[in-house]
Write a structure and sequence with these properties.
27% of the residues lie in helices and 25% in strands. The protein is α/β, with parallel strands linked by helices.
């Protein structure tokens, strides 16, 4: 049996839209925020340790608002995403404040993980089924250090009525393995279909109904950390000069490179759950109503962290 999978939560950006962690809006009457439901689902699925990726600036507030109460139920560790954490010979461009992206965030775990791990965004509600299928895969299935996984969602279960979204639209083989991810930065619901545009709405291309998409819920072996470390300098060489303020080192890009090179496989695990998140302020009511309904169905208790 493999080592116990670890859950890695990318939380360095938490609070950015709200001016601080203490201003993050709860999504139920008990004061829970989205990350509470993610951690609750992860514990039920079998995860026994969480690594939070945070920024030094929010560390005290994060531990007060989230970490200290969660640590009563699951082992917690912290790593820090730092803009200055760059390969030798590189410096942060003057004026840059934007983080280096999801691959850089995961690099913060280098030296902290030596087995399988899952990765999620802190502000996305993935649903209980997603954690279960991913945990079960990581604990039982991988045969080598480059056997990875991704939880795929049905596109229509990830959209909002309040604007456009960015999604990684996935292509899979007949036996359920990822062959490529196409990043579509503007996807919108239409009257009877879903479409994306790459020319600011001048033309729209329909996305087939039921297409699987990535919501940044991955299952990796520790090998990915070495890959990310080895390729970071090359990414900076190619992108820093032409886009110094905004270039991002992203997980889907690196995974896509490994697939093209035949160095890794990614099993697409399916979740029929609906994804929830607050992309727009108007989405909050939808999330609150969904949580209320899930509680009424018994999926979640009224108070997640009521000590027995």
């Amino acid at each position: 049996m493999n080592k116990e999978p670890v859950l890695v939560i990318m939380a360095a950006g938490m609070g950015s839209r709200y001016g601080g962690l203490k201003q993050i809006d709860p999504i139920d009457e008990q004061g829970h925020i989205i990350i509470d439901f993610s951690i609750y689902d992860a514990i039920r699925a079998g995860f026994k340790k969480i690594i939070f990726i945070i920024k030094h600036e929010i560390a005290a507030d994060f531990k007060e608002v989230i970490g200290d109460r969660i640590s009563k139920f699951i082992e917690v560790e912290y790593v820090y995403q730092d803009l200055t954490n760059l390969p030798e010979g590189f410096t942060v461009p003057e004026g840059r404040v934007k983080p280096w992206g999801t691959s850089h965030a995961i690099l913060s775990c280098l030296g902290k993980i030596d087995g399988p791990f899952a990765v999620i965004n802190a502000d996305d509600c993935y649903g209980a089924d997603a954690y279960k299928v991913l945990y079960d895969y990581l604990i039982k299935t991988p045969k080598n250090e480059f056997d990875y996984a991704m939880v795929g969602y049905i596109l229509e279960n990830t959209l909002t009525d309040n604007g456009h979204v960015a999604r990684g639209v996935c292509t899979t083989s007949d036996d359920g393995y990822l062959t490529c991810i196409d990043e579509r930065i503007r996807i919108e619901k239409k009257s009877d279909h879903t479409a994306y545009t790459e020319d600011d709405g001048a033309t729209w291309i329909t996305i087939p109904k039921g297409s699987p998409v990535s919501m940044n819920m991955w299952g990796f072996q520790s090998s990915i950390l070495n890959v990310l470390n080895e390729r970071f300098a090359d990414f900076l060489d190619k992108n820093l000069e032409k886009n110094p303020m905004k270039c991002e080192y992203l997980l889907p890009t690196i995974v896509g490179e490994l697939l093209k090179e035949g160095k890794a496989t990614v099993k697409v695990l399916h979740s029929d759950d609906r994804w929830y998140g607050v992309t727009y302020k108007e989405d909050k009511e939808t999330v609150m109503n969904a949580i209320k309904e899930l509680k009424a169905k018994g999926v979640y208790p009224t108070n997640l962290w009521e000590e027995k």
